Structure formats: structure tokens, C-alpha cells
Amino acid sequence: MELSKGFLGKIFGRVAKAASEEAEQIDRELPYAVMVFTLMAASGVSLYESWKRMRKFDLLPRFKSEAEEVVRQVEVLGKDPLTVMYERAEKTSSKLYRDFLSGFVSSVKSGGKIVDFMRSKLRSIFELRSNAITRSIERLGTLVEAYAVMLIVTLCIYILYVVLSSTAMMEHLAKTSLPTSPYMAYLVAFVVMPMISIIFMLAAHNIQRSPLMSLKEVYMKAVPIGVTTTILLFIFAMIPSLSKLVAVLGWPGLVTIALVAISLPSAISYHRITKENSAAEEALPSFLRDVTEARKIGLSPEKSIIHAAKRKNYGLFSKFLELIRG
């Protein structure tokens, strides 16, 4: 009986965790999805047609799969779009997404203006998102302070250990001097402090997720070099003929070189991504100004965006605008 309870508890725990991750992913993509829906609604596109076009949005993978499910139920099962959206609102684990879908259905049934509802909902979602980010930044600042304190305490404990182990008082108390082997320094530098850093990085990751959609590809670039360097270090440790090289560089030097080699490809890739994002953020005001100028001369929103995207003075942001021109 206890075994079955434990098994069921694990199953329910995994289901709850999956639902929580799904809600978190939906909440992260929801502001941008609602913004797309609002732009399409302002251009005269119905929400169901917006769902059909959402299937092409690779940047919003969760809403892409959601759009495929909505379209499948409408076109394959023959359900009404409003009924499907109401059912999706009942099934989702995200409160914000549920409020958006149920509010849209209620607005349509009551004869309200869809564009006004979309704009008000978009504004409220971004306000909630902004408040959540502000709170997470405050928690992140506290976490950084705790991280600095932990590193300082660790170094102080090690320094205190070295000092006390070499004093006559410690020798008198312990009847023998404590060992001051360099392996203690290796343990602190390569085990204790990295473990503290990893713990705090995981905590920071849970508090504030990266604005980038996926960093898995960046992390995977470190795997081949990591495996190679691990094998090389194992060879250095097992083959006596390589002891001269180990004696010249020392194990701390070899481990440091290995860690730098492992981190370098991911660091270069991440730097390239952040550089492109920074260039896009810097060029975005100019792009929006060009769109506004095109609107002033009487072009439609779609043609204004296409007209502004034809300019070549946006730097690295231009290659993203080619997707619009294409």
C-alpha cells in the first residue's frame, strides 16, 4: 500500500511539475502572442485566422503548438472557434492565458469591440510582466549579495585554516600540526567555490529566466570539447611519461586551461547572440520612426512596415528585416 502511494505520489508530482512548466512557458510567450493578435485584429484579421497564421511563428513554440491544436479541433473535429477557445481556457494551467481566452469569448458574445479588448488586455499583461520583472530583479540583487558573502566566507575560512595550522597553539591543541597540503587549496578553488557558484546560478536561473528563447544550442557547443579535455586529463593522470608536462604546468594550470577551452565556444556564441540583440534594440527606434513616417503619408500598417524594412541602415538588424521583405 505504501509502495503504491509512493508511486502515485511521484506520478502526481511529475504531472504537477509539467503543468507548472507549461504555465510558465505560456506566461512567458503570452505578451508577444497577444501583441501579434492585437496587430492582426487592428488590421482586420479575425482571431481564428490569426491562430492559423500563428502556426508559422517558430519564435513562439508553445503558442505554435497551441495554434495547431486550435486549428485541428476546428477543421478536423468541426467545432466552433469560440467553443474551442473556451475549452482551451478551461484546460490550460496558466491563469493569464485563461483570462485572455475567456475574456475574448465573452467580448465576442456580448458584442464588444475586439480591438479595444485586445489593446486593454495587452496593456494589462505587459504591466503585470513589468511588475514581475521588477520583483525578480530585486530578488536577484539580494541573491548576488548573498553569493558575494558566501565566497568571502569561504576564502576567510580557508585562510583561517592555513594560519591556525601553522601556529604553535594549534600544534599544542592537536598534539600535531594540521596538514597544509596544497590539495586543500585545490579543493577550495576547484570544488567548493565552483559548487557554490553553480548553486547560486541555478537559483538565479529560477528567479529570472533568460530573455533568449533557447540556449540549448549554445550549451551543447561545450559538450564535445568538454569530453575531449576530460579524456586528455585522464590520459595525463594515467600515463607516467607525461608527468614532465604535468610537472611543468601543474594540475591547477591544466585544469584551468581545460575549463577555459570548454567555456570558450559557448562564450563566443553567446557573445554573438547578445551582439545581435543589442544591435536590434539600438536599431528598433529608427525602424519604428520610419514606419511612423510611412503611416503619415497614407500607407497601410502592413505596407508601412514593408516600406521601412527596405532600408539598409539598420546594421545587424537588417538581416532580420529581410524576413519581413521576403
Describe the 3D structure:
The protein has 326 residues and is mainly α. It has three domains: 2-112, no CATH class; 135-210, no CATH class; 217-326, no CATH class. Helix content is 82%, strand content 0%. The termini are far apart. Residues 1-5 and 7-19 have low confidence and may be disordered.
Set out the fold topology.
Elements: H1 2-42, H2 47-54, H3 61-75, H4 81-91, H5 95-109, H6 114-165, H7 168-174, H8 182-207, H9 216-220, H10 222-238, H11 243-296, H12 301-309, H13 318-325
Number of domains: 3
- Sheet with the most strands? none
> For the CA atoms, what is the radius of gyration?
28 Å
Count of DSSP helices?
13
Give the helix/strand class.
mainly alpha
Portion in beta strands: under 5%
Count of individual beta strands: 0
The helix/strand order is HHHHHHHHHHHHH
What is the percent of helical residues? over 70%
Mean pLDDT: 78
Given as residue ranges, the uncertain stretches (5+ residues, pLDDT < 50) are: 1-5, 7-19
Q: Could you give a quick summary of the protein structure above?
A:
The chain has helices at 2-42, 47-54, 61-75, 81-91, 95-109, 114-165, 168-174, 182-207, 216-220, 222-238, 243-296, 301-309, 318-325.
List keywords for this structure.
326 residues, mainly alpha, 3 domains
